[in-house]
Amino acid sequence: MFLRRNRRQKNGQQYEYWTLVESHRTERGPRQRVVATLGKLPGLDEEERAGWEEIARLLDGDGAPAEPTPPGDLFGSPAAPPSLPPPQWAQVDLSRVRVERLRQFGQVYLALALWRRLGLHDFFFAHLRRGREEIDWATVAAILCIGRFCAQASELALSERWYGQTALDDLLGVGVEAVYDNRLYRGLDALLPLRQALFGHLKERYESLFGPALRVPVV
């Protein structure tokens, strides 16, 4: 196998890409076929060159080499042996690969980033009482807010279905079994007395982000 540089013209501009090509014999004589289109490779360091050489060797069906193979043959020019040890490859049975526990990530990650940007975790951590609870109320407030932001569901639906389908357990460090409806309801009770203080905090954050000219009345 070897790498082939390809060039083509489009709209007056020249584009360049690489393909991995294999030579094989047919009844009509030797032929070449494209094994993979690699796209544009702007630069190849020693480790990348060694990696492509190893891929070509594996695709050819060769066993593990006794010594590291110099990567120069594949690219048509001599190259010094890589200073790093050769990459180790593992064979995977693709027929047995499966996806387990598919979860939502993008929405909750964005909501959590907005939550922290607004300083809400610090606000609730400073204003909510802390005792011997397993999960602090500031984190419960984050779950409630992100759940309303992303799912618009009740506390029961958030705990029984929605939370376990998201990546919040990894992002917040709170397991699915620790989020249940009674805990979320008690979280709402803890948040209610902070209503006016929360509005004042959000007003300050809004003005700090968008300037004092954009004022929000607090009712």
Automatic annotation (TrEMBL):
It comes from the Bacteria. Residues 60-80 are annotated as: Disordered. This is Transposase.
